[in-house]
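can u do me a favor
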């Protein structure tokens, strides 16, 4: 009854078109869901970007760069619809969009995540100033939702963001790496809360572009005895 009242007062809005979702019980309009850019066909074996040449194993980014993470998972391609949806989720307090992202992440990749068998899920952190401005870390919402559904512990503060960096989208590959140099640190206090060794970590974030952020986090984790690092993101750009 309480849920029915909530649905009447705050009906579920589509994370794509923002209209009230019908039929009730769904988290997205059926027509909008059909338009989402699901990744099909050949993918990069490292980062999960789709690649046009099926005979290739890796996208051009992963061929050129010596990434240290093991493997990545992406739910959708990054296009105009997903860009607007994620901007609303990230900057406009549309935290409810995360419910759909979490549901689809688990539906599509829950079994694979269980096979990866991470000790913990770790959201990619944002700087304190951004957290104060937004009131939340969108990656933390995703990590906690996925972790709850799959029964995997989440360490929200295992990685800390020490430095307020420039927006990555305006920078070249080299500038991105330089921008993220020493941006992250490992929180030993948070690690001790887990109570056992942390050897396998699944990082959680909203978007993967060049991989610089995931790589920076991976390198910090490797310095603290994490032997395998994976990631899951909601959206990823195209590979070549």
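np, heres the sequence
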């Amino acid at each position: 009854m309480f849920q029915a009242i909530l649905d009447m007062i705050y009906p579920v809005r589509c994370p794509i078109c923002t209209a009230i979702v019908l039929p009730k019980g769904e988290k997205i309009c059926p027509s909008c869901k059909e338009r989402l850019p699901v990744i099909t066909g050949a993918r990069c074996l490292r980062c999960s970007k789709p690649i046009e040449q099926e005979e290739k194993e890796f996208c051009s980014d992963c061929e050129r760069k010596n990434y240290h993470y093991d493997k990545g998972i992406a739910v959708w391609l990054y296009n105009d619809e997903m860009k607007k949806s994620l901007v609303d989720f990230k900057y406009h307090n549309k935290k409810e969009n995360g419910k759909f992202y979490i549901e689809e992440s688990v539906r599509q990749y829950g079994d694979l995540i269980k096979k990866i068998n991470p000790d913990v899920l770790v959201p990619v952190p944002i700087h304190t100033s951004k957290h104060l401005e937004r009131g939340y870390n969108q990656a933390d919402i995703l990590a906690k939702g996925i972790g709850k559904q799959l029964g995997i512990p989440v360490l929200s503060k295992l990685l800390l963001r020490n430095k307020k960096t420039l927006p990555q989208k305006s920078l070249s590959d080299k500038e991105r790496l330089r921008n993220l140099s020493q941006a992250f640190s490992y929180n030993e206090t948070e690690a001790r809360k887990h109570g056992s060794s942390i050897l396998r970590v699944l990082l959680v974030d909203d978007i993967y572009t060049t991989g610089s952020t995931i790589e920076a986090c991976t390198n910090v984790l490797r310095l603290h005895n994490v032997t395998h690092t994976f990631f899951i993101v909601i959206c990823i750009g195209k590979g070549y």
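The chain has a mean pLDDT of 90. hope that helps!!
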